[in-house]
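The instructor's notes for this session suggest beginning with a concrete chain rather than abstract definitions. Hand out the sequence below and ask the class to guess, before any prediction is shown, which regions might be ordered.
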Amino acid sequence: MSTAIEFENISKQYRLGLVSTGTLSHDLNRFWQTKVLRREDPYLKVGETNDRAHKGSSEYVWALKNINFKVEEGDVVGIIGRNGAGKSTLLKLLSRVTAPTTGIIRARGRIASLLEVGTGFHPEMTGRENIYMNGAIMGMTRAEITRKLDEIVDFSGCERYLDTPVKRYSSGMTVRLGFAIAAHLEPEILVVDEVLAVGDAEFQKKAIGKMQDVSRGEGRTVLFVSHNMGAVKNLCRRGIVLNQGQVAFDGSVEEAINYYTDSNVKNYERKVIINNRDHREESLLKDLEFVEAEMLNPDIEHLATDEPLLLKLKIKRNNPSIKSFNFGLHITNSSDICVGTIVSNMLDVPQKNFFSLFCSIKNHNLVKGDYQIRFNIGIKDISLGARNFDVLRNVLSFSIEYLKKTDKSAYSLWLPNWGNHLLSDCSFKIN
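After discussion, reveal the predicted structure:
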């Protein structure tokens, strides 16, 4: 079996701050050192690892540093890691969106990439026109694209809107069409970033099934980035964990997921000040916006099954016309499987710029294990429709350790979660 992709000593360096601030002197110095004096680039010697949580002393940062691995033809590789670990940068380098600072990338065959919602789409062109444009970019002839057109449209489920400009598509429809194009135009290498999370559950299942067919049935190579550990485990045979721009683990997908969850989920977070890049979906309007998320339990690492979960969300009101909202909360286990859900009734918005939402969850019946919490805030109204104002993913984490709070006797066995269930014994307070 031959090698489809090879990363050899790949590094990518970025300069922090505004591009126009002081770059001319650096560019002149780089030109003088490298072109005139024939010396090494002086700025490759500086820079810090990409630790997004701490302020550094250098204005240069290594988004990726000394990446080395190979992917065989027909292999399906899941790339996982925390936000800011370098996953998307790695795929952008492979897709030639940007160039590496050092190192060489070798890839055999055509590459189809789905990196962000709407990547490669022209908003003024129709869905049909964008299919032909994307195919042409990938090197397909018009006849080849026409032969696959019916399959692409049928898979995307967007037939009714095929001759409508893409700018009028929802994010989910855009992802459906983009993935259908990438998967059906017969690329040798399929690169998929976290965009499938935007699609609904039915489409995600269909997309993962298609990627399995592409890899196992047709022998093509797939690189898949996702925070959904269940999807990674079902699809991939091999897993690579990135941490601060470096390969932290490379092995079987089960071992990679265990390594990732052990090293990250157990970094329990009681209070998080929301950072746009690291925590939330940026495409939402944010009429109401999460500012802080906090667990009020005194010991989040040693909670009991009969102990209520106490949460506080600080929310900013950006649109004064919003008078009410619905609040949603989803608890996921260490495999990123949702095991508990809350959807509130309509709650009133206080007439002030910032307010706090307190939530108490009793009788959650969570078994022993590590958990994370996702939040969403939006509105479900017959006249306005259902839409999210803001969504946070996996911002707080905690551990259930004991069966009874009063007993403090640890579980003797790890019990299985039985699936997602509606958490009904909940109370809310707005201040």
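Then share the key points. Confidence is low (pLDDT under 50) at residues 52-57, 411-418. The first strand starts at residue 3 and ends at 15.
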